[in-house]
Write a structure and sequence with these properties.
It contains 11 helices and 10 strands. The chain has helices at residues 2-5, 44-58, 75-87, 104-110, 135-155, 161-166, 179-185, 192-206, 210-223, 225-233, 240-250, and strands spanning 12-14, 23-29, 33-39, 63-69, 91-93, 100-101, 113-114, 120-122, 175-176, 189-190. The protein folds into 2 domains: 2-190, 2-enoyl-CoA Hydratase, Chain A, domain 1; 193-250, no CATH class. The termini are close together. The chain is an alpha/beta fold and 257 residues long.
Amino acid sequence: MLKKILAGATISIILAGSPARADVRQYGEDENFLVYEITGIISKADVAALATLRKTAKNSSKGVMFHLNSDGGDVEAAIELGRQLRTLQAFALTRNSGRCYSACVFVLAGAVYRVRSNSIGIHRPYSTNLTERTYKESQAEYERLAKLAKTFLLDVNVSTSLYDAMIQVPPQKIRTLTLEEMDQFGLLETDPAKQDLDDNASARYYGVSKIEYLRRKADLEVKCSNQLKRMTNGGNADIEPYLRCEESVMGKRRKIQ
C-alpha cells in the first residue's frame, strides 16, 4: 500500500480562479492507479461526469487516487462526489501547494484512504440559492443541510463534530485545521471499517493473531518512524531501509505489488 501512495499518481480538484463548473476527465494512469483530474468549481455536473468515468475505474484492478486542490462549491454535489469516492475505495490528499476548503472537505471525507495533507479548511455550509424566501424557509433549509451533512459524515465514519466545528466559522472566512484536529475528526489515515479489513488481511499474511499483529504494528510505528520520514520526505526515494526495518519488526518481508 505504501508503494502505491508513493507512486506519484496525481488527481487534481482545482477551484480557485477556475470556470463556473468543473472539468472532469481521465488524466492518465500508472502501474498502480487510474488518474483523474477535476478542475473548477464543484457542481452537480461533476457528479454525472465522475459517475460516467467511474465505470472505467470499477472494471480496472488498479486503485484510484484523488489529489484535492479545491476552494469548494456545491455542498450537495461534494457530498455525492464523496460517496462516489467511497464506492471506488479511493485515496485522497492534497499535494504541494494544493488545498481543500469548504465543500471540498466532504469529498476528502468520502475517501477510504485519507493521506496526511496540508491546507484543509472549513467554514459554515451555505445555500447558493438567491431566491427570495422567508426566515422560516431559510431555517428549514439550514436544518435540511445540517441533517444531510451529518448523515453523510456518519456514513463515512467521520465525527459529526466536524460539522459542529464548521458552523462556528462564518462562510466568508476559513479555519485551517491542524493535523491534530484532523485526527480528532477522523479525516486522516484509513477509514476505520476499511482499516479493520486491511488489518485482518495483514494478520493472515504474517500468520499471527489480530492482537499480535496490532502489537507489532504499534512497535513498527515507533521503531521505524525515522526510516518512514526519510522515505516520505524524499517522495519516490528508496524504500528499502524502511522495508528492512519493517521486516525486523513484523518477522516477514512484506509483498510489494
